Amino acid sequence: xxxxxxxxxxxxxxxxxxxxxxxxxxxxxxxxxxxxxxxxxxxxxxxxxxxxxxxxxxxxxxxxxxxxxxxxxxxxxxxxxxxxxxxxxxxxxxx
Length: 95
Hints:
This protein has four helices and four strands, in the order E-E-H-E-H-H-E-H. It has helices spanning 19-30, 47-55, 61-68, 87-94, and strands at 9-10, 15-16, 36-40, 81-85. The strands form two sheets. The chain has a two-stranded antiparallel ribbon with strand order 1-2. Strands 3-4 form a two-stranded antiparallel sheet. Helix 1 (19-30) crosses helix 3 (61-68).
């Protein structure tokens, strides 16, 4: 297995996501410098399925996790407040 085989890829496949990207996303949401939508997680919803719905690719779940400041779990309890950043704004700030 390659070293980065499980590492998220950002910039439409051009570079790997890091904790630096996650902190940049959290900061942008906090400072309101990117557009985002908020939802309350419903029973049966997961971050990867939300990423698939909003971004067209479930592998981008970590962007939602970073913006929501919930860590790196795909399964989050129902009722959790979720922040879904605009993907175009997000790729501009993280590369």
